[in-house]
Amino acid sequence: MGARAPGELVVEVAYDHLQGMRFRHATHFRRWRPDRTPRSCTYAQLERSVPAELAKVFASESDAATAP
Fold first, then answer.
1. 50 φ/ψ angles, rounded to the nearest 5 degrees
2. Cys-Cys crosslink for 33: which of 5, 10, 17, 61, Cβ 3.0 to 4.6 Å?
3. Alpha carbons 68 and 64: distance in angstroms, whole number
4. How far apart are CA 48 and CA 17, in angstroms?
5. How far apart are the C-alpha atoms of 49 and 55, rounded to whole Å?
6. Chain-wide mean pLDDT for the chain?
7. For a pLDDT cut of 70, what percent of the chain falls above it?
8. pTM of the model
9. Torsion angle, CA of 8/44/53/17, rounded to 10 degrees?
């Protein structure tokens, strides 16, 4: 990790939806991250899950057979 410039802070947030490179809807503060630098935080580390509605629409027949 590199040195942090004066005035640079990192926070961890929770979010409901990511559209492209933008957070959609509100984000929620989780905690300050004094152990991280801004350069160590990228979009690549974000989890991208398929919404439940799309997962149901695009489920394979084998997935449908094991669904409750």
1. -80, 130
2. 10
3. 8
4. 9
5. 9
6. 79
7. 69
8. 0.57
9. 10
Residue whose entry in the numeric block shows the structure tokens 């942090």: 4
- The set of residues, in sequence order, having a beta carbon less than 8 Å from that of 65 and lying 6+ positions away, is none
Cα distance between residue 16 and residue 49, in whole Å:
11
So what's the pLDDT on residue 38?
92
Report the distance separating Cα 38 and Cα 8, nearest Å. Answer: 7
Query: Among all chains, which residue has been given the structure tokens 């490179």?
Result: 21
